[in-house]
Design a protein that fits this description.
- The complex is a heterodimer of chains A (422) and B (84).
- By secondary structure, chain A is mainly α.
- Chain A contains 23 helices and no strands.
- Chain A is globular.
């Protein structure tokens, strides 16, 4: 084959890598990502509670008593007592707090762990709340599904703390829910994809054996909605690239992911890319990891606006039965053999040709636009990956529109719901 | 991905849908191109004459904005034109 074999990097962590990992931690021992979230205010509620505890001083007294001590209300009583109470430095609370901040790392880490545990407990409580939302109608089911998606999104960065057990519970709930909306399937696939990417990004933070980790990532990817939205190979490839860019050894890690890629072209491309990633410097790998994550986010399509667009195109009647649409597509060849349909097709085609020729003369296109178009359409390119999803949706719209124009939406709805032709 | 999808359909549909998709892409890119100033236009010409995928991506991200939504909007427009 025309690609180089990937390096089987089984070496222990290199010094630069250790340095890199150290740089990623701040003085409190909190990892960079968590620190960023704290700065963004995501944990404000919980941090407020923790700060209140600190305000109450290290003895755990309530604020009122502590204030009283500071004001000297209990000086007489304290002076009478021997031992511990005398050691309380009422006049110097600031210094006392500073001393606490300078305490060795393990205590700061345990505070962080406590905070994370509380957050995970909160997520479980949130999950329980969502489970209680009624699901009598499709609308309610959809709302419930959206809440589950939001919860996965908030939880995914800390999902490794309970080995993704909580998130797997949400996915099981989503499997049962099935709101029967066309775009729900796309939203689910997109959420699963994002989750798998986060799992791969947190691979080093996650305290399971490599084999267990890759097994769980594959299990999650396998939850992508089957049918026309499914794109497991692409997700597996992205996961493999993320692992490689974090210097995760190929053997017993990445190879487990690669072996599940079914499409031979995607598999070859993934192996070639991993081989190239392994040759990059640590800094280049860090940049690449950032880029892969960014690109995965960019690929995500806003399903809500898409649903609105579909509805405004008059395609919403068709979208209610996603499984049947695949069947309908499969029958399109038969449809085109019908002479009556062929005649109608010629008419539609004439209109389309006229529209394209009138407004879009290729000669009038700027060269840069032509080149950009070629780049976006180039199979396997970064740009194709980013705009591929939107392009795919557009093709789907256009095809549905063509079929609807040819035979009428009502006919297609009947076909897709198993009804008889009028 | 897109070609795989189109392969599910008879050749007539494949051909026409491909043409329409090209038109949508051209219109979306042209719309974005017209909003660029002369310096940005010449930057685009230079970048898209190279094989640097990253630079192309960064350029589109920075200067072309939300191309996905523009494409969906153009698809809607073109379908409405055909319907007329």
């Amino acid at each position: 084959m025309g690609f180089e074999q990937p390096k089987f990097n089984n070496e222990s962590i290199k010094p630069e890598k250790k340095e890199m990992e150290e740089n990623d931690k701040n003085v409190t021992g909190i990892d960079k990502e968590t620190q960023k979230k704290i700065e963004e205010g995501k944990y404000d509620g919980l941090l407020k509670k923790e700060n209140e505890k600190l305000e109450n001083n290290i003895t755990g007294m309530d604020k009122e008593t502590w204030e009283g001590i500071k004001e000297g209300k209990y000086n007489q009583l304290l002076n009478k007592e021997e031992g511990v109470q005398k050691k309380i430095k009422v006049e110097e609370p600031k210094k006392d707090r500073e001393e606490k901040q300078e305490e060795p790392k393990p205590k700061a880490e345990s505070k962080e762990l406590k905070l994370e545990k509380e957050i995970v407990i909160n997520y479980y409580e949130e999950l329980e709340k969502i489970r209680n939302i009624p699901e009598n109608t499709n609308g309610l089911k959809k709302q419930k599904a959206e809440k589950y998606f939001e919860l996965i999104d908030s939880w995914k960065d800390l999902g490794h703390k309970d080995n993704y057990k909580g998130i797997q519970k949400i996915i099981s709930e989503l499997d049962k829910l099935e709101p029967g909306a066309w775009f729900y399937n796309l939203a689910k696939t997109q959420n699963i994809n994002e989750l798998a990417i986060t799992m791969a990004s947190n691979y080093k933070e996650w305290g399971l054996e490599s084999k267990e980790k890759t097994k769980l990532i594959k299990k999650i990817i396998d939850k992508q909605k089957k049918g026309i939205w499914e794109n497991k190979d692409k997700t597996l490839k992205q996961v493999a690239e993320i692992l490689a860019s974090q210097e995760i050894p190929y053997k017993d890690n990445i190879d487990f992911i690669i072996k599940d890629i079914k499409n031979p072209d995607i598999k070859t491309e993934a192996i070639t890319k991993i081989s190239n990633i392994e040759k990059k410097s640590i800094e280049q790998k860090k940049q690449l990891l950032r880029r892969i994550k960014e690109e995965a986010k960019e690929e995500k399509i806003d399903t809500e606006s898409l649903e609105k667009t579909a509805s405004s195109l008059g395609l919403d009647k068709l979208l209610g039965n996603p499984e049947a649409i695949s069947k309908m597509f499969a029958e399109s060849s038969e449809l085109m053999k019908n002479p009556e349909i062929q005649k109608k097709w010629q008419e539609i085609n004439k209109t389309i040709e006229k529209i394209i020729k009138e407004k879009d003369k290729p000669s009038s296109l700027p060269d840069s636009v032509k080149k950009a178009k070629e780049s976006i359409k180039k199979p396997g390119s970064n740009l194709e990956t980013i705009f591929g999803a939107a392009g795919w949706i557009i093709l789907l719209f256009l095809t549905l529109f063509m079929l609807a124009e040819l035979k009428g939406v009502d006919y297609l709805v009947q076909q897709s719901s198993g009804g008889k032709k009028k | 991905m897109q070609q795989n999808f189109l392969n599910n359909f008879p050749s007539e549909i494949q051909e026409t849908v491909s043409k329409l998709y090209d038109t949508i892409l051209e219109r979306s890119l042209t719309e974005a191109y017209q909003k660029l100033n002369d310096t940005q236009k010449s930057m685009m010409a230079t970048i898209f004459n190279t094989d640097d995928e990253e630079k192309k991506k960064d350029f589109l991200k920075e200067y072309v904005g939300d191309l996905q939504n523009t494409m969906i909007r153009e698809a809607k427009k073109i379908i409405e034109e055909i319907k007329k």
